[in-house]
Amino acid sequence: MKEQTKTRPALFTYTTLGRLIAFNEHQCPIVEVNAEQLSQPLEARSCVKLSPSQLGAEVILLMTGENNPVITGVIEADPVELDITPLSPPNLLTVDGHAISLKAAERISIQCGETSITLTKEGKITLRGKYLLSRAKKANRIQGGSVELN
Q: What is the value of pTM for the model shown?
């Protein structure tokens, strides 16, 4: 018994560059392939999301079978900009030789031994220590909604 063999078209795969030139009425991308043997624009499939703003962009094509292009990537003309914005403002310490600016989103505390100064975002300032000394060459004022002394 003689085996029958079917003739199949030669399958080949290679990668090349092309250009996205249009979308057809079914929104399928149309590409020009940078190859001497392919002078006609071809309908392509795509692995990446495409938009009309990318028309004219260089694309990376995986050529399969009988010149069936698959877009695997778009080469961006401009460098990609990354938005690396922290979720909350970073703590900041600035020293410029004349002043020190220290900023924090929640609280700032300075501590030395048993003494501390704490500032909170709600506007509360807490001074703690064994002794508290306040000196002024001119007026030394204490102002507030109410002032309690002992």
A: 0.46
SS (HEC) of the chain: CCCCCCCCCCCCEEEEEEEEEEECCCCCEEEEECECCECCCEECEECCCCCHHHCCCEEEEEEECCCEEEEEEEECCCCCCCCCCCCCCCCEEEECCCCEEEECCCEEEEEECCEEEEEECCCCEEEECCCCCCCCCCCCCCCCCCCCCC
- Sites in the chain below the pLDDT cut of 50: 1, 5, 8
pLDDT of residue 117: 94
* pLDDT at res. 85: 65
Fold of 13-75: OB fold (Dihydrolipoamide Acetyltransferase, E2P) (2.40.50)
